[in-house]
Amino acid sequence: MGKIWVDGVSKLYADRSGGTLRALDEVNLSIAEGEIVCLVGPSGCGKSTLLNLLAGFDTPSTGRILMDDALLAGAGPDRSVVFQSPSLFPWMTVLENVTFGPRKRGVTRGEYEPESHRMLQAVGLNNFFHHYPYELSGGMRQRVQIARALVNRPQVLLMDEPFASLDFQNRLAMQELLLQLWEQVRSTIFFITHDVEEAIFLGDRVHVMTASPGRIKASIEVPFAKPRAIEVVTTPRFVELKDQVLRLIRDEFARSDRAAAERQAGRAA
Amino acid sequence: MSDAASRAGERRAAVAPLKTHAVSAAPAVPGRWDRLRYPAISVLSVTTLLTLWAVIANVFHTSPMVLPSPQAMAEHLRDLLAEGYAGKPLWYHILASLFRTLTGFFLGIGVAIPIGLWIGYSRTMNAVCMPILGFIRPIPPIAFIPLVILYFGIGEVSKILLIFAASFNFTVLASAAGMRSVPEQLIRAGTNLGLSKRQLFASVMLPAAMPQIFTGIKTSIAVSWAVVVAAELIAAQAGLGFIIEDAGTFFRTPEVLIGVAIIGAIGLLFEIIVTMIEGRVLHWQGKG
Q1: Minimal Cα–Cα distance from A100 to chain B, Å?
Q2: Partners of residue A30 on adjacent β-strands
Q3: What is the mean pLDDT of chain B?
Q4: What DSSP line would sit under A40-53, residue for residue?
Q5: Does the pLDDT value for residue A104 go beyond 80?
Q6: Does the distance separating the beta carbons of A81 and B192 come in below 8 Å?
Q7: Residue ranges of chain B with pLDDT lower than 70?
Q8: Element (H, E) at A209
Q9: Per the CB < 8 Å rule, is B193 touching A86?
Q10: Percent helix, strand and coil across chain B, each rounded to 5?
Q11: Which of A143, B33, B112, B201 could be B171's S-S partner, Cβ–Cβ 3.0 to 4.6 Å?
Q12: Which chain B residue has its CA at the smallest distance from A136's CA?
């Protein structure tokens, strides 16, 4: 469960001048069950667009997305999202936030309560059940989001730069925590980031995306076995991979810069 | 250096040593005085105004028709409390105004909140209602007094209807704005958790819109209270508006002032109550 196949998906938006903006162009991607896939690329390259399609917040303009051989139909808790920006319900306590989904879906208390407690313990928030989000630090809020997502036992966990706004220490701690949690739940993880090191540390596979139009430029297999410890990031093999990905991104950046300059020149002429 | 600049420089120089002194005298930990400083200044401000009033009235022996002295006011208040006004006890007048205001206010927000939420939720409903509401909004409610009297007479219905309209006006727009400004991210989070449309509306959008709805409610209660007084100025046999209108006609300035003071005090009380409820319900607002 949790196998995803993105088949020739494009997403077009109408831009302000009445033209069309190609946010995603013929994206093909196949994600195996229980795999951790990281997507890196410059901001605005359509990473979040792809995640929104996977989550079911939006539908592809062309192409199709299959999960476990069935077409995606709308958003749902089988594909739980961890957002980058604050998306906890500010009027609910930590525990209320985590139990909210199951409660509304009619799961019995006897079922969701122990599970919520277990999840909150797993993310290290035993003592914060009755705190409100505004009483928590940024890192703790992301922990709540992860618990809120995992309590639904999702087949796929969709994460949209979830640690981007955290400081370095917190980010490391969260990355290690995520890998630990994955050992327990083994759900498929689709993880967006612009941090190359994060992508290689977490991912079984790293996809590099290009901007305008958004395409998958390269896919790199990460050879390190899990469970991984943070020490892996200083190994020569890791550094080599990082160099490879950075080079791809830098080439891409130069290309899009040139393209932008050409467009500018064309406009001027 | 220009003249003005040099003067400003002198002033700064004169203030600077004082400032240093104050800092060195204050304890390193914020003490009681630091917490009480601004409330104390407020108390002083009010006391000064009252004292000024007492001094002017008593020293210059101003006519009670223009500026009655505090002690004269106290006497009139005692009489009002003992004998009432126009054959009815003072509390009757207060309750009459309160009843009209609160009835109109609660009916107003009761209708305005659902309609406002609907307007904020549905673009069609928005297109239907907004031109009309946008046109009505800037019209002062008291401008409708002649029409309301023409249609509904000078009884309670007219007054409550005016207050209803005033109360409705502000809360409906605030509720619509609140609904429109629910963060997309929260809606997505709710959808992602598998909520139905109805659950999403009741459990996510409504609470997220509450801060703005409350802003509307606050304005509505204040405007309702203002409108009741205006409505009672025109045609009423009881009420605080009636007292000040009637007393004014007979140049009974102390009664007018007492009526005004009661209106002010109750208005303030409304605000305090609503703010307290708001603080309780919306403790999360504007944080984190």
Answers
A1: 8
A2: A5
A3: 88
A4: E--TTSSHHHHHHH
A5: yes
A6: yes
A7: 1-30, 288
A8: strand A205-210
A9: no
A10: 80, 0, 20
A11: B112
A12: B288
